Amino acid sequence: MATSSKKKKKDQPIILITNDDSIHAPGIRALVEAVKGLGKIVVVAPDKPQSGMGHAITIGNPLRLHKLHLFEDVEAYSCTGTPVDCVKLAVDKVLHRKPDICLSGINHGANHSINVIYSGTMSAALEASIESIPSIGFSLLDLSIEADFTAAAHYARSLVEQIMHQPLNEPHLCLNVNIPKGPLSEIKGVKVCRQAYAKYNEEFDERKDPNGRRYYWLTGVFVNFDKGKDTDVWALQHKYVSVVPVQFDLTHMPLKKNLEKITIGIENKYIK
Fold first, then answer.
1. Per residue in 44-73, pLDDT tens?
2. Largest CA distance in the chain
3. CA angle 161, 136, 225 (to 5 degrees)
């Protein structure tokens, strides 16, 4: 019986969990609790908030890992680097193999529309997908440290179960999942969406510190330029969980075809 139990534990799928709000954030704890029992969970997350870091990696400073005992029966490490660093280190130095799935979040605040480009949460998920690790980034539309993650955790577990038990034939699967703020009873369901063209109209507020030195503080107002009813912004405004399949290949294929037509006659006159 002991041998059978040990073998069963060894054969469990490995779930890597990371985020950009830091390993101490309530959102990552909610995600860990949400997927317990679905596999062996290993957490590698930043030691401090890394929001807005995008796909940044650390190349000029040493990276350090520290083992922590923050989650019951879960192996966990804090990392001094970015969310992408966390995924890279987890695969190479902690797991010594690719996990079966990588989960990032649950982020405090939205990562819909153009926000996905800046998001450390989604960059960690995209880094995993680059390495052919199925990945999902989760975000809750609530910035409060006291946010209620009940609904987010419910849908996170449901989606992870679906992806793990019914794998999609996609070698670089990455999903961007946003959950509306509010109780579970108010959420209408899940919508598979496209990314909206919506962004912050930004400006820098000029201020002075106590010593009279000028500094700038980024401010802005979120504006939705996309009136489609198939977007993530629309779904979230109407109390649906939005699921957007994303990819790291940024090639604009229609424009590529047009460019091929207009550049076909360009020759290098210096080649003999």
1. 999 999 988 999 999 999 999 999 999 999
2. 77
3. 125
